[in-house]
Amino acid sequence: MPKKDLGLIAMSYGGIYVAKVALGANPNQTVKAFAEAESYNGPSLIIAYSHCIAHGIAMEDGLNEQKKAVACGHWPLYRFDPRLIDAGKNPLQMDSKAPTLDFAEYAYGENRYRTLKQSKPEVAAALMELAKKDVQWKASLMEKLAGLEPCK
């Protein structure tokens, strides 16, 4: 099953500022999201990628791991600002590009994926294909939502 998307759930309410950020991938986008969230007169939600020692990466490589997560589409960067609706604009702005890195290259760099591949390679391969499809579907969905014409 794909993961639930807290950002999409919050955006569906319409009146919550929502941003998904990764400091290592785009520090300017992170700062901009915090400034917009602070200035929003209502609830704000910032979902930040946080690398973890349990991922099995050297902590000094954490910011590069964030770049990989964004580059493969696992962690898309965006900002959803409800104030743009009143300005006649789409409130969802994608701040990351379409995926340029294979999800497996990102995933197998972390213990949580690598250990399954080592212990049950057939299961890992099947799950990796499902995960890749999920990442592609989510990237496509987010691009389509960001490209919608605003309601008038």
Number of strands: 4
Rounded to an integer in angstroms, the radius of gyration calculated over CA atoms is 17 Å
| Span of the ends, CA to CA | 36 Å
Low-pLDDT sequence parts: none
What count of structural domains?
A: 1
As a percent range, the share of strand residues is: 5-15%
Principal-axis shape equals globular
Biggest β-sheet: strands ordered side by side in the sheet? 2-1-3-4
Characterise the protein shown here.
Helix content is 48%, strand content 11%. It is α+β, with helices and mostly antiparallel strands and 152 residues long. It has one domain (6-146). It has a 4-stranded mixed β-sheet, with helices on both faces. Strand 1 (17-21), helix 2 (27-39) and strand 2 form a beta-alpha-beta unit. The protein starts with 5 loop residues before the first helix and ends in a 6-residue tail after the last helix. The model has no long low-confidence stretch (mean pLDDT 92).
Summarize the structure.
Helices cover 48% and strands 11% of the residues. The protein is of the alpha+beta class and 152 residues long.
Protein traits:
single chain; 152 residues; alpha+beta; four-stranded mixed beta sheet; 4 strands
Q: What is the secondary structure topology, with strand pairs?
A:
Elements: H1 6-11, E1 17-21, H2 27-39, E2 44-48, H3 62-71, E3 78-80, H4 83-86, E4 92-94, H5 103-107, H6 111-119, H7 121-146
Parallel strand pairs: 1-2
Antiparallel strand pairs: 1-3, 3-4
